[in-house]
UniProtKB/TrEMBL annotation:
Keyword set includes Lipoprotein: no
Protein name, UniProt field: B box-type domain-containing protein
GO molecular function: zinc ion binding
Pfam families given in the database record: DUF2009
Keyword Zinc-finger tagged: yes
Coiled coil: none
Keywords from the named record: Metal-binding, Zinc, Zinc-finger
Organism: Linderina pennispora
Superkingdom assignment: Eukaryota
Domain B box-type positions: 35-79
PROSITE patterns according to UniProt: ZF_BBOX
Length: 555
């Protein structure tokens, strides 16, 4: 039995010896946190892709890029690992032009095979009947109002009671005998939402919160089964039927074009050719046709969302010089505290800031289906619980978003490499009070098209006005007030590039500012004040009704 030290022993002891022992123990403890062989020394869970000669350490592409982005570390020499790396979860830089059917890089078959892992399968007629049943049941359900409240009592019992009530509405039978039916109908709702982001605006949130709660172990024990099934994609269907090689055929490029009146016959002939060539007993022609149409739906989604970013980037580079402003009215320079701005940028710096922001939004929308699948996996993961807390915007489910975070940082790193020097913060809020969960993240960036498409439509209206294709009295009004349609277009663009990217929208730099999410917050803040702009009558004359109104904000 050790003898306790006396007061005299403590006073006469050497404290430096104890400190040395403590430091040694701390160093020894640190050695236990070893990096797995072949993995990144920073995140420890991704394959090493680059080796820094100065740091003498291995990094994955994302961590290496973030650590060596600024300061003296930017001068470090990095060598690529000799091993070949696989495509990053759909975040491939290959771009496909759905309108022309051309690929900007070699290997369309490999690219489309990888991309189809995240393209949901188009709903059949029978599945659409189930969808209407699900939407009706979710519409009358008060699930979130009953569950996401701060009150005493057993929350698990309340969750189970609400799930049973909804399932009873759907089936009208003993729900425990219909596990596959419920898995199927809930999967149809999730699949439909990914392909149609503008649908199920309130019902989808209830659905995901219900499925999120149903994944808890105690809830599953009381229910007796799981109601979550993987989302059915083009890749999973073709792979299960053993005909994944159909995507290697050159005719897939033609068969998955968007429907253009002049090329519709060519598209339909290509589809029929592929169905006849690759149909089997296990994989009938109708399934192949459905898969090809689903890929075409993805291209239509890209045209409606991603292409708006391309058009705005084109306007930015065509109408504005990156070095100097054409005039004071068309200068992009902003000053903190003036006109609501919270950032101070020169014209050149603001040009680069807007350019890289639009480029990032474009890449996020290009891989939106992949991000949505990652968000679905994060929200419905078995061991990923959420915390119900007041974030300043009501009670929200705050939950870690590991898969979405990884994918978003890969896209950000890819954008940073393409645009060069980065302006502003590169922080992506996820799982905090700003962006509580993956569902909020997806919803935020699905709004990019709702912001940009109405602006693009107004710019197209002004181009037609300039070419004499619109009413003469409107052209006279624009001439008198703005000095012509061309000047009106530039004034709209200049104000948008200044005021929608000025760090506004909140009273601190954590909620807004130049961070990745703050850039979108500033854009929404510009939308909220559109009625005060001097060019607002031009918006109304072009048919604009709002950023959340009819199709693309137009009547």
């Amino acid at each position: 039995m050790p003898v306790a030290p006396t007061l005299n022993d403590i006073l006469n002891s050497d404290p430096s010896a104890d400190l040395a022992v403590a430091v040694t123990e701390e160093v020894d403890d640190g050695n236990e946190d070893t990096t797995p062989e072949g993995c990144c020394v920073e995140c420890k869970d991704q394959k090493a892709q680059v080796f820094c000669e100065q740091c003498q350490e291995d990094f994955c592409e994302v961590c290496g890029g973030m650590i060596h982005r600024t300061g003296r570390r930017r001068q470090h020499v990095a060598m690529e690992e000799p091993e070949e790396t696989a495509l990053s979860g759909g975040a491939s830089s290959v771009t496909f032009n759905a309108q022309s059917g051309q690929v900007d890089a070699q290997g369309f078959g490999e690219w489309i095979t990888e991309r189809t892992k995240f393209i949901p399968l188009r709903l059949t007629l029978k599945e659409r009947k189930y969808l209407r049943l699900l939407e009706a049941a979710l519409h009358v359900s008060e699930y979130t109002d009953r569950i996401d409240v701060l009150q005493y009592g057993n929350k698990t019992k309340r969750i189970v009671a609400q799930i049973k009530e909804l399932c009873a509405i759907l089936s009208g039978l003993v729900f425990a005998d219909n596990e596959q039916f419920f898995q199927k109908i809930f999967e149809i709702g999730r699949r439909h939402k990914i392909m149609n982001p503008e649908k199920m605006r309130s019902e989808y949130g209830k659905l995901m919160h219900l499925l999120q709660d149903a994944q808890a172990s105690d809830v599953q024990a009381m229910l007796g089964f799981s109601i979550v099934a993987p989302i059915k994609t083009v890749h999973s269907v073709l792979e299960s039927l053993g005909v994944l090689y159909v995507l290697e055929d050159e005719m897939v490029v033609v068969a998955t074009k968007e429907i253009v009146q002049l090329e519709i016959k060519q598209k339909e002939r290509a589809i029929e050719y592929l169905c006849k060539a690759y149909a089997t007993i296990d994989c009938p022609a109708e399934v192949l046709r459905q898969c090809l149409y689903s890929i075409g739906d993805n291209h239509a989604f890209l045209r409606a969302t991603r292409d708006a970013c391309d058009r705005m980037l084109s306007h930015l580079t065509r109408d504005f010089s990156p070095q100097r402003a054409e005039s004071d009215r068309l200068s992009l320079a902003i000053l903190s505290g003036r006109n609501g701005a919270r950032l101070s940028h020169s014209h050149e710096r603001q040009f680069r800031y807007v350019h890289q922001t639009l480029a990032l939004w474009r890449e996020l929308l290009h891989d939106m289906f992949m991000l949505w699948h990652s968000a679905d996996s994060d929200m419905l993961a078995l061991r990923n619980p959420y915390r119900l807390m007041d974030t300043g915007q009501g009670l929200q489910r705050v939950q870690p978003c590991q898969r979405v975070s990884r994918a978003a940082h890969q896209i950000l790193h890819r954008t940073q490499k393409s645009v060069g020097r980065w302006v502003g913060s590169a922080v992506i809020h996820l799982g905090d009070r700003n962006v509580p969960n993956a569902l909020i993240f997806i919803d935020k960036y699905n709004q990019v098209a709702s912001i940009l498409n109405p602006v693009v439509r107004v710019l197209e209206f002004l181009d037609r006005l300039q070419n004499g294709q619109e009413r003469g009295d409107i052209r006279e009004y624009v001439e008198q007030v703005f000095g012509g349609a061309e000047m009106a277009r530039k004034l709209v663009l200049a104000d948008f590039f200044r005021s929608a990217f000025d760090g506004s929208g909140a009273d601190n730099f954590f909620d807004a500012g130049s961070c990745i999410d703050g850039r979108l917050t500033s854009a929404w803040n510009w939308c909220s004040s559109i009625e005060k702009k001097p060019y607002f009558p031009v918006f109304l004359l072009s048919g604009f009704v709002g950023f959340n109104g009819g199709p693309e904000g137009f009547s």
